[in-house]
Amino acid sequence: MTAILIFFFGHWFLSLFFHSFFLHRYASHQMYTTSRRWEKTIYFLTWFSHGSSFLVPRAYGIMHRMHHTYSDTEKDPHSPYFFKDVIQMMLHTSRIFSNLSSGIDQPEPQFTEKYLPVWDKLDRIGHSIITRAFFVLAYTAFYIYFAPSLWWFLLLPIHFLMGPIQGAIVNWCGHKYGYRNYSNDDHSKNSTPFGILLMGELFQNNHHYDKENANFARKWFEFDMTYIIMLGLNKIKVIHLIPAVVEIKS
After folding, report:
1. Quick check: 249 pLDDT over 60?
2. pLDDT of residue 250
């Protein structure tokens, strides 16, 4: 049982960190700069930690920029206000993501003006059915060896879809439940204590108010673990944090 718990929570928080740190705060918002070598290293670790649910960074970045521009309108790729449940929202998001990844849909120029990280070879490998199947089999094999009973196998679907599940929780809960520090032109909210458990990602109201600020926490009781780690990486010069431009909104 201990091995399963360590594996599950290790996979959850490692995947969540690279989801927040690389896909969200770098690919989507360019909140920091880094060397080409470190970008490749972080890119690889993002793929490895996401495994079967790898999200191509370029497509993720485009879709997230769309989310901010069209937040909680009909053109938002994943607003909970246009779907009857979170499953329908996830399926809709998946279709948009798949079309962007494959090139079926071309994004508006405004969503590709800023830098988007691309590693074509790793994207092809990570996005392939064979690679995803390999990770699925690896997760299953671990459970076969270590799970004390069949009940534990109910956790496997979370491993298989780790990245999309984390995104769905943030986009659904972060726009439906919680409190607001700021009046935005959308329904974004802060969800505490879940904002802490999601490594800062559920402080959506704070983030939508000041989307270029790498620190998603504002109040004394809000804690953004991803940002704390980023401060450490900035100190040892793995990344260089870009100071947020203070924007006064009426």
Report:
1. no
2. 45
Residues sharing a CB contact under 8 Å with residue 137, sequence separation 6 or more, in sequence order: none
Q: Which stretch of DSSP H or E encloses residue 241?
A: strand 239-241
By CB atoms closer than 10 A (0-12, 13-18, 19+), residue 104 is exposed
Half-sphere exposure of 159 (CA within 13 A, CB side): 26
Angle in degrees, CA 30, 31, 32, rounded to 5: 90
The Cα 224–Cα 194 span in angstroms is 11
Torsion of CA 47, 49, 53, 56, to 10 degrees: -30
Token couple for 122: 């790793």
Record the pTM: 0.92
Instruction: Please check whether residue 22 is in contact with residue 16, taking contact to mean a CB–CB distance below 8 angstroms.
Output: no
Cα 97 from Cα 158, distance rounded (Å): 19
Place of tokens 């804690």: 223
SS3 33: strand
Amino acid identity, position 39: E
Q: Please give the span between the terminal C-alpha atoms of the chain, in angstroms, as a whole number.
A: 53
pLDDT tens-digit series, residues 143-195: 999 999 999 999 999 999 999 999 999 999 999 999 999 998 899 999 877 77
Q: To 5 degrees, how large is the angle CA 127–CA 21–CA 177?
A: 95
